[in-house]
Design a protein that fits this description.
Number of strands of chain C: 12
Chains: A mainly alpha, B mainly alpha, C alpha/beta
Structural class of chain C: alpha/beta
Radius of gyration of chain C: 21 Å
CATH architecture of one domain in chain B: Orthogonal Bundle
Oligomer: heterotrimer
Largest interface: A-B, 52 and 46 residues
Largest sheet of chain B: none
Structural class of chain B: mainly alpha
CATH superfamily of one domain in chain B: ABC transporter involved in vitamin B12 uptake, BtuC
Order of helices and strands of chain B: HHHHHHHHHHHHHH
Chain lengths: 352, 337, 318
Amino acid sequence: MRTARRLDGRRVLRFASGLDVPLANLAAAGFLLVLVLMIMAYALGVGATALGIGDALRAVVGAGIGDGQAFALWQVRLPHILLGFMAGWCVALSGAMLQSLSQNPLADPGLLGLSQGAMVALMVLLVFFPGLPHGLAPFVALAGGLGVAALILFLVGWDQADGLAILLMGIALETTLSAVASLLLLYTPPETSYALSNWLAGSLFGASWSVIAGFAPWFALSLPVILLVGRSLKSFDLGDETALALGENVRRSRPAILVAAVLLTSASVTAVGPLIFLGVIAPHIADAISRSTGRTRLVLSALVGGLLVVAGDTLTRANTSDVALPTGLAITIIGVPLFIATLRLRALRTVQ
Amino acid sequence: MRGRGLVVLVAAVALSAAFLANLSLGASSIPAGKIVAALTQFDDTDYDHVVVAYQRLPPALIAIFVGAVMACGGCVLQGLTRNPLAAPSVLGVTAGATLFVVAGASVFGIGEAWQGLAAIGGGLFGFASTLVVARMAGLSRDPRGLALILSGAVVSMLYASIATALLLASPSRRSDFLGWVTGNINHVYAERLFDFWWIGAAGLILLMLLSRSLTLIALGPEKAASSGVNVRLVSPLALAAVVVSSSAAVAICGPIGFVGLVVPHIVRPFAGDAMTVALPANALLGASVVLAADIVARSAFAPYVVHTGVIMDLVGGLVFALIVKRFYLSSGPRRFA
Amino acid sequence: MRSLILILSLFFAGAAMAQTRPVTDDAGREVTIPEDPKRIVTLHEPLLTLPLLELGMPVVGSYGRGDNGESLLALDFIENVLGADGEALGISGIGAPGNIDLERIRALEPDLIVGTEHDAQKADQLSAIAPVYLQNSRSGVVSGFEAEAALAERFARTDTFDAKKAAYLDRVAEVRDSLPGNPGEETYLAIIIYDQINVISAMSGAIQAIEDLGYSKAEWQGAGKASGYGSGFAVPLSSEAFGRLDPDVLVIMNSYSSDERDEAAIRARLDRIVPGWDRFLKPAREDRIIFLDSGATATPTIASAEHTLDAFEAWARD
């Protein structure tokens, strides 16, 4: 392992296996990691119960605190922070994958209809089979997401090399599925529809240790996904023709990447509802911090995603006014200005 | 040209049929003769006449207004952007207008009178956001000009979700807007039609006046410029007319999108490229389509009542898929005209 | 992790300290509830808080209220139905509407949380704070005072309930005698107006009172069908069909989320939805309409039923 200068002039860390990681990317990952930890620590101290950051941190390492404070820490804040981070991580990761796949910077699990597929499947479960056990929910959501992915590939054609076509077909399905969701809402009594729409707006209310335990395998799955998919994505980043020339089997890797994106999206939709727009924003912010490709880009995007959701949830809890601030909206409030700033930044860079 | 004129005639017949059907179908069906009587010799002691005049005519007029405005908007946008997927609802106009109306009512507590203005501001804002995102996202190397469509979809998704979240945050407002936000044609909104109809009408008249130049621009801006069209003036003017008039439609009955996407594609094979024919045909057919969608929405899921916007979204999504299949999945990019 | 287990065991220990007994709630869950709850948090104001307050139960937190007890919903039911002040009763809030705050609930130190059957999904979360008892409260499942009677029995307040009900039944007899016709042979239809007209299909306090007076529900076109955005409590009625209704007594109220719910406001709203209704609707021409304030009469409580009786009495007097 040593540092070296690559052909493009970037300083890289070269591993014995021949893997190059630009130093700037390493620095960015370190910076993001520190930022994530800082926000998490801050988030521990935010909420209705008086519990300072210091108390919280001491309690995490084992010191004693009051009952109410212990409840706030162990039953509310920690589960929110952990689940929020994992869900944000997964959604951002799948957004980054889809953007490379479709070679389009605006791809998003929501835009492709994957979130809506999972959502509509869950609604069908809730509306028509309310008696079925809740444990089924993740699998139903998964089936919905996979169904949409399969439909997209079927409609577009398996060997269609055009990422844009996939995206456009996704938008078409997304529109149709949203209308179906509205129709389904009709068949639910108003109280259920209100609860449903709360969940549709993205909410961490249900965060608990059991939900986290259920989500953990999916989160763990994301690590091999990054390792396996990252490599082929690098070729996609270069464009399909190049990917083919590099020996990438688009016919095989495209469905595989799509399935991975669906797995991650459906799991997070089940846990916290669809986090609209996060899949677009996070990779852009990651790019603004440090340009990267392949695995590094996936990791950076995922970190930003987790960061944004934890920040959004903290804002929701910090909001003490009498008007509710849904977490989905809070994430948007934080993310969109950053997104616009990054776009502006890039425009300036291009000019120079 | 005579064949082209026939299209307008057929569309006019379709509109009259849809109009009469819309007026006669309801909780009880009222025979056509009585409807004509109610419109020509109104008798305020006959309950059927009162129902037709006060409860069925206003929603039918709203449907006609929305259909005409949205379809013409879609036709013009598809011509100007030279893209078959363009429409007010695709390019962020309806979502922006929806967001501003909802935000105005729930955050700033504005009354009905200002909602029209808010909708127009929102429509302009939504369209501008789409343009900005498209430019900034650096999609300029995209050969088929799809940047607009993609950023429009992203912007619409974002604004629609913010509007929903705002409604969730104020439960009492939610019941007021739940119907409106999914595109509800209802005679209770008749007052808004009387308030805002002139905006849409002015927009349509402006588009008709510009129709010759628009035809030329759709065929190619350079060609149009060489035939003496002031492209730099006409394009923005037409865009503004489309955005403002479709925002006015949103202010009346909420987002009933996708008429603008669907109808121009039905009209184009018959009316050709000439806007002078295409615009009236689109207006008439768009109105008929929304009238028909309104009938379906009221009766298809009885006893449930679905809102017209939902039906149009369902149809629109499917047509969107068809257009993608036809224009973007054939071998090699096909010229769009 | 070890401290987590410690904390959890502490919770269970805390719950076991007071006098408790195991019961099965309406969602079929086994819950250990206190014999005599001292601090109750409810998840629905009109459906749960009001019946519990009427039974004299100690409610300390109610959904839709601010930290000081002021109502955050469109309507303060405690004030409108019971004429009481939530703030003075010491009822606090549990977070902004739509955003229940677990830490706020925990801070109220409840020994019981009561929800409706629709809160089943929140029950797991809330059980970490206090036992969660789910009471069937929604229309179609229970009607009239049934939910209140069930709660009275569950928490040993049947005496209070029976006394209030007996007083109410005396009042029913008194009002019945003041009415012009014979309610036993007459029909009624109850209407609530949102942005469309709806027939009330469920048994709220108002309907309980009307049926206790002896009126029977009129047949109407589309009866018995559940429907969209307002299903359960009310069923949409075509505004065209409204003008043709002719029950012996027509009861009309405005949506409880509207600011004004008196007769003038209801008339203005009908003028928009059914122009000319007062010329065509037979009950309107013959003064057979009773205007109710939904904010006072729509809850499933005895107090709401009594407000309804007052309105009938006032109508008969005119």
